[in-house]
Amino acid sequence: MVDSLLRKIVTNNLTNSEKILITKKLGAEKFQNVVFKAEDIKFKVIKKICPNYLHYHDKYIDWQKKHKLKKLHSDYEKNIVIQNANIQKELSHKEFHREMNRNYHINYKRPLEIKEYLNWNKEVHKKNLKENFLLIAILSALALLGLPQALILIPLELFSAFINFQCVNIQNHNIYRLEAKEDKMKKVWLQQLQRNSKKYEEANSLVASKHEELQDVPSFDDIISSIKSKEQLEQLKKLIENQKAINNTIAKQKGKI
Q: In terms of residue numbers, what domain contains 19?
């Protein structure tokens, strides 16, 4: 079996299940648990040290948006910048409240978008890994040329290289797992989207119109003040309850794709 697997690796002819097995053997699942623990600590520290983090984050996003808009002339380009800024705010708010990084957890409203984040995160760590190898080579050469201080830095770069390798391996592991159930997830997501569109039509319309009016992510108070009918209020209440249920599901299935 090992010989057969090695031949497939060389010829790049592995099945999805075999790729998942290899990444698991390389430590993907164990290291991902370490990542989740670090993630928990990170969000708890941020919330304790800077409870108003989102306020400052939104101000920074607005500053970036304003700076970019000054350089643009067409309404089309300006709308793209505004939409991207709103998306960044929305994603950051979700990360902060759920204490879950978007690179490792599925957004149940848009479950397939995680593949984009997985690939982006993998490329970041691949670039870092190449830099690690380059620095290790340079430090090794300096040590051979009689600079013993370089030896102190080599273990640090080796540790950094290990972290980056494992992060690449985690993302590959999750990408292969996602691909294995991508078609099924897409089908379920489309069915759920159709059901929710009809079920929460009034509430969705309310949020969308406020979003359009403000050209920004509306606050809860903005939405409440815009309610014009009992039906909108009831649907909004059910929509919030549904979102809470989704958040509880995410919390229970943390890290699962």
A: 2-183
Q: Give residue 160's Cα distance to chain centre.
A: 21
Q: What is the pLDDT of residues 129-156, one digit of tens each?
A: 999 999 999 999 998 888 888 888 999 9
Please tell me the distance from the alpha carbon of residue 87 to that of residue 103, in angstroms, as a whole number.
Answer: 15
Q: What whole-number distance in Å separates Cα of residue 11 and Cα of residue 13?
A: 5
Is residue 32 domain-resident?
yes
How many structural domains comprise the chain?
Answer: 2
Contact (Cβ atoms closer than 8 angstroms) between residue 173 and residue 23 = yes
* Residue 195 located in a structural domain: no
Tell me if 23 sits within 8 A of 169, measured CB to CB: yes
60 and 121 share a domain?
yes
Pair 93, 84: CB distance under 8 Å: no
Residue scoring higher pLDDT (85 or 109): 85
Sign of CA dihedral 69, 73, 76, 77: negative
